[in-house]
Design brief:
This protein is an all-alpha fold and 102 residues long. The protein has four helices and no strands. Helix 3 packs antiparallel against helix 4. The longest helix is centred in the first third of the chain and has 19 residues. It is elongated, with a radius of gyration of 16 Å.
Length: 102
C-alpha cells in the first residue's frame, strides 16, 4: 500500500523557492531597456542557471547577491536602480527564510 508521501521541505528548499520568486518579480520590473540593462539581464541569466542546479549552496547565492549589488551600482537610470535595489533587499530576506514549523 502506497501512502501519500510528501517531500519534506528543508530550509534550503524554502530559500531556493523564495529566491526564484524574487528573480521572477525582478524580470517583470526590468521589462524595458535602459542604460545598464545588459548587466542586470546577464545577472538574471546567471541566477537562473544557479537556480536550476539541484543542490543549494548558500555561498553561491550570497556571491550572486554581492554581484547584484555591483550591477546596481552600474545602472544609471535612477528609477530602475531603486526598483532593483528593492529586489536586492528581497533577495536577502529570501536567503533568511526557514521552514515554517506546524
Amino acid at each position: 500500500m502506497k501512502g501519500n508521501s510528501k517531500k519534506v521541505l528543508t530550509d534550503n528548499d524554502v530559500k531556493k523557492k523564495a529566491v526564484k520568486l524574487v528573480v521572477v518579480y525582478l524580470k517583470k520590473k526590468i521589462s524595458r531597456d535602459f542604460i545598464g540593462s545588459e548587466h542586470i539581464n546577464e545577472w538574471i541569466a546567471n541566477m537562473e542557471k544557479l537556480i536550476e542546479k539541484p543542490e543549494f549552496v548558500l555561498s553561491e547565492y550570497l556571491e550572486m547577491k554581492r554581484q547584484l549589488n555591483d550591477v546596481i551600482e552600474r545602472i544609471l537610470d535612477e528609477e530602475m536602480r531603486y526598483k532593483i535595489r528593492d529586489s536586492w533587499y528581497s533577495f536577502g530576506k529570501a536567503l533568511d527564510k526557514k521552514v515554517k514549523l506546524m
